Amino acid sequence: MSPGGTGARTHARADAGTHARAEVLVTPGALAAALAGDEPPVLLDVRWVLGRDDGREQHLAGHLPGAVFVDLPTELSAPPTAEGGRHPLPDVAALEAAARRWGVRAGRGVVAYDATGGLAAARAWWLLRWAGVRDVRLLDGGLAAWTAAGLPLEAGAVVPEPGDVVLSGGGLPTVDADGAAAWPTHGVLLDARAGERYRGESEPVDPRAGHVPGALSAPTADLLGPDGRFRPEAELRARLGPHADAGPVAVYCGSGVTAAHTVAALATLGVEAALYPGSWSQWSADAARPAATGARPGRPA
What we know:
- The protein has 2 domains: 16-148, 3-Layer(aba) Sandwich (Oxidized Rhodanese, domain 1), CATH 3.40.250.10; 177-283, Oxidized Rhodanese, domain 1.
- The chain is built from 12 helices and 9 strands.
- Helix 6 links the parallel strand 4 and strand 5 (136-139).
- The strands form 2 sheets. Strands 1-5-4-2-3 form a 5-stranded parallel beta sheet. A 4-stranded parallel beta sheet has the order 7-6-8-9.
- It is globular and about 55 Å long.
- By secondary structure, the chain is of the alpha/beta class.
């Protein structure tokens, strides 16, 4: 077969995917080695689950050595409003002040983790990259993968030396409500929530049930394997590749948190997707915005 044939293109695509994945995810073993090096990354513990507020207590009971606790509702979000949603993007100056409290410094890598397969930690990954920090990765499998590898935890609070990072927004693409409404006419809009919320069968948090007309259901939890790690590249490509091949991709969820996890999964495939930060919490609070229900995408507004 010639060098430019199908086999060569497939091999090149695989190499590109492997490189892209390594820029997003880090294994427990590789992280342990980095932490033992001369310039260890800043570790962020972003344990948060909707409806619970005991992340800090969990952190204090046991966390990766040197990890700083990050409070998602107050440090990775602005206060909730009907106009902005449940977790609006924080002001860049506030995010910079928080990042400096965490010890983030110019030129130093960052690794974020949680206990839910990255569903919360991806918010820190996305925000810091959006704000201009390029070397940010997720611990693949999070806390469970670290302990399963026999690596140690420590207890108590961690107060690092203040950092000096300078942040600026706009490093990753976003879309607002009007953009989300129009997106299905020229690209693919993915709804990262659980299928029953997409279909409108259940809505435990937001004002109305349903989904943005034209959006496709792509639950982000399906992108994780039974061990809480991101699925292998081939499996992710089977789930997400057809969407990426159909045009530019934008993603939303309930409040812009777990959608960042889908954006991260797409990034492991070398696909840059836009995030709709306000997500369904913003959309459903506006009575003028239509809501589609059922398993079909519905008609774009």
